[in-house]
Write a structure and sequence with these properties.
- The protein is mainly α and 233 residues long.
- The protein contains 9 helices and 3 strands, in the order αβααββαααααα.
- The chain has 2 domains: 63 residues, Winged helix-like DNA-binding domain superfamily/Winged helix DNA-binding domain (Arc Repressor Mutant, subunit A); 140 residues, GntR ligand-binding domain-like (Four Helix Bundle (Hemerythrin (Met), subunit A)).
- 64% of the residues lie in helices and 4% in strands.
- The protein has a 3-stranded antiparallel β-sheet with strand order 1-3-2.
């Protein structure tokens, strides 16, 4: 009698441990839509609309919405859905006051550390991109974001970096919403400020680097606040 050939056992598919939970996916996508101004300040949406937009069930969506509400992006209104919170002048001012102080400290630390030209290359490249952008505001704004990110990333203070990250997304949301409303879209003066700041950091002039950054960001903050107060927004 022939012996039956034993079939190899089928391998059970293992669920990938790296797969993000659906609530995290929902959170990241909704946050992106808000930051990119695809969901507009003041817009009201039903939970069902968002679930259909994300092709997602209600439970992970609600977890994501709770996180976004805690971070100040939205307001959840029972039986009325979700409201994308409008840009607040007070919130914007407070955010920029915090960022200005922290980034000025980062500039001071960078200058004091005395980094090599190779280490300072990301800052210099960002300034060169700003100078090359000319009147192209979108290109200039991207280079500006790169400069400020590099300023903080290179400072060597991990806690400062973590604190800045908490507010950077909110600040960028303000910038993107107000960028199109500027009366004079050529940012030559701001580019010159960035060049002067880079030169001070490169020269190791910590006190001047801090002072230059505080002066520039204070003026930038006031300009944004005026735009936010405009009835056009």
């Amino acid at each position: 009698m022939a012996r039956k050939t034993r079939q190899p056992a089928k391998k059970r598919k293992r669920r990938s441990k790296s797969r993000e939970p659906m609530s995290e996916i929902a959170y990241l996508e909704l946050r992106r839509l808000i930051l990119d101004d695809e969901l507009h300040p003041g817009e009201q949406l039903l939970e069902q609309e968002l679930a259909q937009k994300l092709a997602m069930s209600p439970t992970p969506l609600r977890i994501a919405l709770a996180r976004l509400q805690n971070e100040g992006f939205i307001a959840i209104r029972p039986r009325h859905g979700v409201r994308i919170l409008p840009l607040s002048v007070t919130d914007s001012r407070e955010i920029y006051e915090i960022l200005t102080s922290l980034e000025a400290t980062a500039a001071h630390l960078l200058a004091r550390r005395g980094l090599s030209p190779a280490e300072l290359a990301p800052l210099e490249q960002a300034v060169l991109k700003m100078e090359a952008a000319g009147d192209e505001m979108d290109r200039w704004a991207t280079a500006d974001e790169e400069f400020h990110a590099a300023l903080v990333d290179l400072c060597g203070n991990r806690r400062l970096q973590q604190t800045v990250q908490l507010y950077r997304d909110q600040a960028n949301r303000v910038r993107k919403a107000t960028l199109r409303l500027r009366l004079h879209p050529t940012p030559h003066q701001s580019t010159q400020h960035h060049r002067s700041l880079f030169d001070a950091i490169k020269a190791g002039d910590a006190a001047n680097a801090r002072a230059l950054h505080l002066s520039h960001r204070d003026g930038y903050e006031e300009a944004l606040v005026k735009i936010l107060q405009s009835p056009i927004l």
